[in-house]
Amino acid sequence: MKKILKGKKILITGASNGIGMYLAIHVAGQGGEPILVSRSINKLRVIKDMIERKYDVPVHCYEADLSDDKMWKDVLQTIYTERGSLDALINNAGIGKFDAVNESNWNDINQMISVNIRAAFRSTYETLPYLIEQRRGHIINIGSQSGKMATPKSAVYSATKHAIIGFSNALRMEAEPYGVYVTTVNLGPVKTNFFQYADPTGKYEKAVQKIMLHPNRVARAIVQTLFIPKREINRPVWMDLGSKCYQLYPSLFETLLRSQFNKK
């Protein structure tokens, strides 16, 4: 079977678990060369060993706290120095904390802004000139259905994902003439450890567990889109339809779905 990513170097942030881990597996399964970034270098090494044994492709690991802009900039420069080039960037790292704004901790707010927005902007800013120079590449940004349809207790999280969607929409038009594709991935709840931090009570995860997406399926869909000019990946489809209707009739939807919106 033809390996569609053979020889392609794919940088994946937040790669130590969940969607990021499965992205690494599917990239390797298609012959690609995963370049993994996470705060947990030990977890990355376990993933690296597993992938290299199974798929016989090189995997590269880098430790970085993406909330530290200087550290992330330095690590990105190290990656380019050591790897020589990149073919695609997947800005997957993200965190959330579900609280009403008046009950929020500023450190949590700052952390979401730093990881979800600034780190993605930084990696794109550092990577894009190289992709433009080689006249090919793909940037995939993990957004959220929350970036299209905000709900109570997710004001800051929704705002960060709304920023990613807006950033990507403009970037797509800027990068297209150079052969660089930009795709956003807008997801509903995914069965990962995201909720351990977002809602330690477990109430929201329990409320949505029946509709949760599996990270393996999400990752497979993302990898299948690499180097294809696709605007968005939206999952689940019914939630995306709901977000589109919400854009047309926001007040009506906020009234009709008030109880659903307040499940956090």
From TrEMBL:
Single GO MF descriptor: oxidoreductase activity
Keywords: Oxidoreductase
InterPro entries for the chain: NAD(P)-bd_dom_sf, Sc_DH/Rdtase_CS, SDR_fam
Taxonomy, superkingdom: Bacteria
Any one cellular-component term (Gene Ontology): membrane
Family statement: Belongs to the short-chain dehydrogenases/reductases (SDR) family.
PANTHER family (UniProt xref): DEHYDROGENASE/REDUCTASE SDR FAMILY MEMBER 7B, DEHYDROGENASE_REDUCTASE SDR FAMILY MEMBER 7B
Protein name per its UniProtKB record: Oxidoreductase
Species in which this protein is naturally found: Halobacillus andaensis
